[in-house]
Fold Prephenate dehydrogenase.
Amino acid sequence: MSGTTTGATNGLAKRVTGQVHVIGAGLLGASIGLGLRAHGTEVTLEDASPTTALLAADYGAGRARTPEDPEPVLVVVATPPDVVADVVARALETYPDSVVTDVASVKLAPFLELRRRGVDLTNYVGSHPMGGRERGGAIMARADLFVARPWIICRDEETPAAALALIEAVALELGATPLEMTPQEHDRAVGLVSHLPQAVASLLAGRLLPASDQAIALAGQGLRDTTRIAASDPELWVQILGANREPVVEGLDALQADLAAFTDALREPEAPGARRRLADLLAAGVRGVSRIPGKHGSSERFTTITVLIDDRPGQLAALLTELGDLGINMEDLRLEHSPGAQIGFAEIAVLPEVAERAVADLTERGWRTL
């Protein structure tokens, strides 16, 4: 079941019916609440911080539970990783007839801890929606946070089909794509595609601290792209990296070996074979990035056209309107300002077969393209 799309519904749970209780009203918990409520599901909230729970409620993610509320059909644990096992165990005891899932970004450690404690895991299904933002908290929550994102569902042979189907229904209702993995497969995968990049981005961003203001002023989109996730919460990431340390350390060791080879070749570029080693390492990066899925998880690649826009109100809106009028679908958009100039660059990703026509039509309408 490695990375396979689930097929557990089979006439069981086509949609979420009944009350859902969310424990942990931060970014993920509040986003789940917002998304489910948008589809008519009743959501109640709980958080260790009363202020956080009230804030999420104010944003419309749900309401506080009352003694009159029935037992929920589903309990979603959206707490920090270091307390997930405690909260899941308590939820299974408090709501014995409810399905319980957690959405932590590490799956094996909580599962093993629950087993070590002898907790009855019949109604437990670990899961992980691959959605997030650099900033956390209910204030950053979005109902569409999980749209077109993978939602990993972990189960074993003892997981009831109805429980699995309910988690799948939640994922589908929130616009995600449910996939099945074992906890081990999940942790190894996210160690490579999520946790290792976080470590690298943070370390790279840390190298900016001793740099001069003059040097930082030259920073462009490339640096912003590679350090964007470094703005994430350090306390949360200490928990995540510690809980998934083996795959991350393995990735760091491999990266360190590549860095050493790259550094040695660059230190003595005239040495025999040095330029070849540099080229091979850079080319490996090109091949690697080509494997990253594109829009909506497809492997389709896009062509980028760059349009110069004046730095004044309405210009970007005008450009997007022109693209719509021309019948050109924009797959992605990135903006960059030119340092010290009243001009910006709009990098627009389009399908390769329409790129040439897009450039010609925009140029004909007075836009400057690169």
The two ends are 46 Å apart (CA to CA). Residues 21 and 75 are 5 Å apart (CA to CA).
